[in-house]
Predict the 3D structure of the following.
Amino acid sequence: MPVHVVADTVSKISDLRVTLERQYEVTSELLCGAGTRCGDSDAVIVTADLRVVENIVALKETFGKLAHVRKRIFLIDQKPRLFTVQAYALGATRVLITPVTQVRLLAQLADNIRSEANSNEALDGAREAAMAGAVAIASMFSAVLTGKPIDVRGAKGAGSRIADSIAEDGLSSWLETVRSHHEGTYQHCLLVTGIAVDFGLSLGLTKPDLERLYSAAMFHDIGKAKIPLAILDKPGQLDAGERALIETHPAAGYEVLRGNDAISAEILDAVRHHHEYLDGSGYPDALCAASISDIVRILTISDIFSALIEYRPYKPTMPREQAYEIIRSMQGKLEKPLIVAFRDVALNR
Ligand SMILES: [Fe+2]
Ligand SMILES: [Fe+2]
């Protein structure tokens, strides 16, 4: 099981080789230097200073030739969130902040390679769509953090690939792929998009409506770029202050996208109102039934279900049956005929 190392200094390559060569066949290359061909690697480990523009440019180029390696672990020694987001935008599937213990690195690698061994065609299609989706979402977050323009077309294009993957290979392949290869907010946005697409397909939505739905899903949590990771990824209960901060994300997302010509009024509405409930108990505007559009109602159910079944390293993943029971218990807040229609998506597809 070969592993390829890409680093910006010779000493980083040497250090990683010492750790990895006990268990793996290792190839390596120096960023901006004469490279070694990586051959058929199962995983690539990247360690480079992402503050250096030349490293970013070189990584973009290097990843062109590593397109066939689907597991990409980035080791970065810069804590600020921007660098993590940048790593995902470059195509990382896992980002580990250094110092990383040898045990943790080897465990991540073994985990990645094991899941890679369960390969079949449906999962391969889902993996490619998930990678494109994760890169688009990470680029979007990076743009929000740096004040650069958001690549709306790129995000919609990635949403379209996800829709094709779901239509072709089904929801289960999508859930399995996204939950085993992506994490945090990227995992969540990818799951919501896939679930919303499958829900839309099961409801027989027209193609333009399906496009609106997956676009809204791709953008729905963009406001989370403004929330500190320590709160977003906090294991366990949030306190009242943290909860209040999290609840600012729909309005924050709306502000980020408002005025962008490529964002339609429906997407803006979905970003702002995907946490509203029919009984008026949601946020940020405490809307009630008549003011909540169909697309938002579909998105809200997909969003809640996704949050329930997400993979988190610190707790077991909730079975789909149990998650659907929670959705079913939310009658009054969610539309009853949609809850009934969602049963097939939640349990069978
Ligand atoms: Fe949200
Ligand atoms: Fe969400």
In short: The first strand starts at residue 3 and ends at 7.
